[in-house]
Amino acid sequence: LDSLENPAYATEFQSAEGRVFILPTFRGSRTLQEYQSAFGPGGSLPSEYSISPQISFFAPAGGFTLGGSASVSRVGDTTLTATPQYDPSTLANNPQSSAQTTGSSSGTFYSGSLVAARRWGANSFGVELASLKGTGSLSSVTTEANGPGRLSEERSQSTSDITQTRLTAGFSRDLSR
Question: In this predicted model, what pLDDT tens digit does every residue of 115-126 receive, in sequence order?
């Protein structure tokens, strides 16, 4: 893992090594009553989840150490529900006024890097080219009731993209030699 932060550390690999890492995330229920039921006899199932697999591989090759990593992260849909708080004077004037907002969001991110490192005596130098690409979306619907038979709805949707490329150079010196 340190070789992805400072590419010069990749020269520590004496043989080919790889790693597969899976990071699961779970999110439970949303209301206080649902959280409390998690401790009861029935328990509760997670309402949302995501999994982020990551892989990395490094190998010495002809005086150099070459390697890289790749990962994908998918943030599952997040269901949003909100009922705004009203000023008591507003409720006194229109007791049948109410609103509710529901929505969801999601994001997907891909990242990868390539590393090359070389050792000269007690010194090591390495370079890394890393890339991150991602997309996300958010959508919501606000429904408002303003008295009997009067209903209004507002929809909003937003998307985003991210792209980043980074070049990192690293140096290390083995002080024990």
Answer: 999 999 999 999
